[in-house]
Specification:
162 residues, alpha+beta, seven-stranded mixed β-sheet, 17% helix, globular
């Protein structure tokens, strides 16, 4: 398993703003499934403690109803310390199941209408991994992973058309 870290060239304007994804070798009959990690919840006070003008691009119009919420994208991202705890946990517990872990810093300011991962509905191909329900989960905060099976190749079933 490899760990890929993509750092920002600019200083981060807030403590949050780090993202992570993992690639699972085999998951639900698919190969190399990419799972995007996020915080599924946060305290309401966090929303008010952030100086949003530095983090979100203001556009000529307010985002339309039902469109994205870049504030939630920031709040579901991780701090650097949280990111390090996640990497240490995943690398220790799932190293034999993962091909890699990728971490990156968000590029601020964000566009105003990004869709947060937490807003994606689960369905036939799109689902969530809720790491905090795994016995022995050691982190002091919940982490979810969003995947889309339609984006990944099915396992070779060993069928030979000849």
């Amino acid at each position: 398993m490899e760990i890929h870290r993509k750092e920002s060239n600019a200083p981060q304007p807030c403590p949050r703003g780090f993202a992570a994804s993992i690639c699972i070798r085999v998951f639900k009959g698919r190969k190399d499934v990419v799972v995007h990690l996020f915080r599924p919840q946060w305290e309401p006070a966090e929303m008010e403690s952030v100086h949003w003008a530095d983090l979100i691009q203001e556009g000529p119009h307010e985002p339309a109803a039902g469109r994205g919420d870049s504030r939630a994208v920031v709040l579901e991202s991780f701090t650097r310390d949280e990111l390090e705890l996640i990497v240490k946990y995943l690398a220790g517990r799932y190293a034999d199941r993962l091909t890699h872990i990728t971490t990156t810093a968000l590029d601020f300011p964000l566009p105003a209408d990004l869709l947060p991962l937490s807003s994606m509905p689960e369905g036939k191909d799109i689902g969530r991994i809720r790491f905090e329900i795994v016995p022995g989960y050691p982190l002091p905060f919940a982490v979810h992973g969003l995947y889309d099976l339609s984006q990944h190749k099915p396992m070779d079933q060993g069928l030979n058309p000849d």
